[in-house]
Amino acid sequence: MAYQQDLFQAPADAAQASAAGKTSLSGVRDSARACRACPLWKGATQTVFGEGPSDASLLFVGEQPGDAEDIAGRPFVGPAGRIFDRALVEAGIERKYVYVTNAVKHFKFEQRGKRRLHKRPDTREIEICRWWISRELELIEPNLVVALGATAARSLAGRPMPIERSRGELMPLGSNGARMLITVHPSYLLRLREEEDREREYGRFVDDLKLVASAQKR
Hints:
This protein is an alpha/beta fold and 218 residues long. The protein has helices spanning 14-20, 25-32, 67-72, 79-91, 123-140, 150-157, 163-166, 186-190, 195-217, and strands spanning 58-62, 99-102, 109-112, 115-118, 144-148, 171-172, 179-183. The chain has nine helices and seven strands.
């Protein structure tokens, strides 16, 4: 295996066990559609798997699908996704060449009237879904993995990783020479109330992505 197996949990149910035998990214994606390993599938519209080239050298991991992603069935297509796309352009990274996925594949939310408000996945949900991340990493074999936010960082590292303490540092991931860089999730920028804060933190986010672009060139 390209990545250390102790980073990831074994399959938790029959659906995930069936995925273990899949040797292609499309096969794993098909198996993920039937995942019932945690209760999140009950409220979600669908599984939102990763997308991008199967041989991408750069892979981004977010937290979970949002409302727009749950409906569209694609990662990073909502408000946070638009910020992500804009930052990628400014950093000189073309999205069509990278693989984008989430640590948790179903939308977790709290219903408020007609609105579905994002709710952070808990530790158990993150751990259960690490199986799918492991298969994506093993099959794609990226050189660099970017964790967008604390949930993604925890999923990849197998333990809590304080964002500011680890941010912007290239660290080893697994045993095949791949590296990981941790930064904020673009949804963090949406939650900032002051324009000055948003501009400053967006600039920091772009700077982190420029580090990613530079690391990919080396």
